[in-house]
Automatic annotation (TrEMBL):
Organism encoding this protein: Streptomyces coelicolor (strain ATCC BAA-471 / A3(2) / M145)
SUPFAM superfamilies the UniProt entry points to: LmbE-like (SSF102588)
Source taxon at top rank: Bacteria
Gene3D superfamilies per UniProt: LmbE-like
Keywords: Zinc
UniProt xrefs under Pfam families: PIG-L (PF02585)
GO MF, any single term: hydrolase activity, acting on carbon-nitrogen (but not peptide) bonds, in linear amides
Protein known as: PIG-L family deacetylase
Keyword Zinc in annotation: yes
Record GO biological process: glycoside metabolic process
Length: 247
């Protein structure tokens, strides 16, 4: 019997200069796609991060008022490791982010400020595949980001943004969803992997609460395991995968 053919992922589009990554929480990008971001900034591309929340509900033993500034600091350090210096927070409330026009407007405003050709977000679907349930914040932010890529280009959807001096930006060509169970494209994770490990390790407080394992062993195992599994669909090269929605 012959092996079933595994559909191979396409390389990510390369003709862009600026990307904006929009996710719900500190660590969302580090768990999924920091290796790709490191490779892109190495090539001289600009990447900025926008986080809907400060992840203040993420650590059981830390009250939100203490947790928010700590996670913000860890997120900024973690972004710096992969060459990202602009990190913004939209201050929606962690755990109860609501999909709706307020969220779409905040993300559309960020897209107009940064004027990216590529927008990155995280899994907007109900599950991670199979029966692994996704969290409501990820679903809300992922969906709102896919919608806001179009909202940002329409002068009449959120006219208050134009009043604030944010002119429409209709230049988003792709929205790439990390952590999707239906990926279409991939980036070679090899050149950025060491920095991806160090980037995730910057979320030290969160990781120390999460696992009994040595943080570096845990982080390296998690990231390389995922990248190697994804590589089966990318010519055997460890990969970061995306589901790309072209516009
Ligand atoms: Zn998250």
């Amino acid at each position: 019997m012959t092996e079933p053919t595994i559909t191979q992922l396409e390389p990510m589009p390369g003709d862009w200069r600026r990307a904006l990554a929009v996710v719900a929480h500190p660590d969302d990008l580090e768990y999924g796609c920091a290796a790709a971001i490191a490779a892109w900034t190495d090539e001289g591309r600009e990447v900025a991060y926008v986080l809907a929340t400060r992840g203040e509900a993420g650590i059981d033993t830390l009250a939100p008022a203490e947790c928010a500034p700590l996670r913000e600091r860890e997120q900024r350090a973690s972004a710096a490791v992969v060459g990202v210096s602009e990190v913004e927070f939209l201050d929606h409330r962690d755990g109860v982010v609501e999909y709706g026009t307020a969220l779409r407007r905040d993300i559309a405003a960020a897209i107009r400020r940064h004027r990216p050709e590529l927008v990155i977000t995280m899994n907007h679907r109900d599950t991670w595949g199979g029966v692994a349930w996704n969290t409501p914040d990820h679903v809300a932010v992922g969906r709102a980001t896919l919608d806001a890529a179009a909202d940002a280009g329409n002068r009449w959807i959120f006219p208050e943004l134009t009043d604030r001096g944010l002119e429409p930006w209709n230049g988003v060509r792709w929205v790439a969803v990390a952590g999707s169970s239906s990926p279409t494209h991939a980036v070679d994770a090899t050149p950025g992997m060491e920095r991806a490990v160090r980037s995730l390790l910057e979320h030290r407080t969160y990781i120390e609460v999460l696992t009994e394992e040595d943080p570096e062993t845990y982080v390296r195992g998690f990231l390389t395991g995922f990248a190697e599994a994804a590589g089966e669909r990318f010519g055997g090269r460890p990969a970061v995968t995306f589901e790309v929605f072209a516009r």
